[in-house]
Write a structure and sequence with these properties.
- This protein has 303 residues and is α/β, with parallel strands linked by helices.
- It has one domain: Aldolase class I (TIM Barrel, Alpha-Beta Barrel), CATH 3.20.20.70.
- The protein contains twelve helices and eight strands.
- Helix 9 runs antiparallel to helix 10, helix 10 packs antiparallel against helix 12 and helix 11 packs across helix 12.
- The radius of gyration is 18 Å and the shape is globular.
- It starts with a strand and ends with a helix.
Length: 303
């Protein structure tokens, strides 16, 4: 499998009683497919996998496959503290014939590079699916480094891509220069332009849940057309939104933006609290409206 394009980690809508809203989830998935995203990730951080029971995660993956069919690739997140639990999520992904799995470092445990590699390889042995690694030290407190990559790559051919979300440029440079067999995927939104300049062909973006057209526009400008002047104009328009999403209310902002887009996201699950204040909502609405105008202008300018 090749990762090329925009892969939103889809939200998980919850109803007024806090249960997974299957109908609203299907609407969110259909919205993304209609807007021609290139794949959908279920069980990512934006999908609040950490706030769901194991059975909810199994059921949500199966429901996603039923809704999507074969229209776009489905990638299932395997994030878990215990390797055994991550393996079960990977096995469930295989059972529903998902196209790939997302494999990150286990949080809290602080494994060494060798231990983290053993974790990833144990998951791989049970699933046998294409793997997108997920390097997110900000939440996992562990960085995938050279020892990790050397060990994993000599042991399996299933690792095809990495969502690099350290927020630092050095890991991007190391991956691009020293590990060209791993496809780069942007996982740090305000560095998307830099990722594409270094050869990334995909972007795993939370904002793709509610602004798929604009995220696709940046991908096409940089990765397809190689027009980085146009890409800079689009990226400049996106930066105010990315500044909001980098704040304390990331998920609340994503869900409210999805509401603006006409979806029914519901509130986050605990420990997060629901909603934004009215000034925050007004700011987000204004930023989104301006972003859309500026991206549309950039597209017209180059037509």
């Amino acid at each position: 499998m090749k990762f090329e394009g925009i892969y939103p980690p889809v939200i998980t809508p919850f109803d007024a009683d806090g249960n997974v809203d299957k109908a609203a989830f299907a609407e969110a998935v259909e919205f993304l497919i209609e807007r021609k995203v290139h794949g959908i990730i279920v069980g990512g951080s934006t999908g609040e996998y950490y706030a769901q029971t194991a059975q909810e995660r199994f059921d949500l993956g199966a429901w996603a496959k039923e809704v999507i069919g074969s229209r776009v690739p489905l990638i299932i997140g395997t994030g878990a503290v215990r390797t055994e639990d991550a393996i079960e999520y990977a096995k469930a992904a295989k059972a529903i014939e998902a196209d790939a799995i997302l494999v990150g470092s286990p949080p809290y445990a602080l494994p060494t590079q060798a231990e983290n590699a053993a974790h990833a390889l144990a998951i791989d042995r049970e699933a046998g699916l294409p793997i997108m690694l997920y390097n997110y030290p900000g939440r996992m407190s562990v960085t995938m480094g050279r020892e990790f990559f050397d060990t994993v790559l000599k042991s399996t051919k299933n690792v095809v891509a990495i969502k690099e979300a350290s927020g630092q440029m050095e890991p991007l440079h190391v991956l691009a220069r020293e590990y060209p067999s791993i496809e780069l995927s942007c996982g740090w939104d305000d560095q998307a332009l830099e990722f594409f300049a270094w050869g990334a062909r995909s972007w795993v973006c939370a904002g793709g849940n509610f602004l798929p057209d604009e995220h696709i526009a940046l991908y096409e400008a940089c990765a397809v057309e190689k027009d980085f002047d146009k890409g800079r104009r689009i990226m400049s328009a996106m930066l105010p939104l990315m500044a909001i999403l980098a704040g304390e209310k990331f998920l609340q902002s994503v869900k409210y933006a999805c509401e603006i887009a006409g979806l029914r996201p519901g509130s986050p699950r605990r420990p997060l609290q629901p909603g934004l204040g009215e000034p925050e909502k007004a700011q987000l609405k204004e930023v989104l409206a301006k972003l859309k105008r500026e991206v549309a202008s950039a597209a017209r300018r180059d037509a």
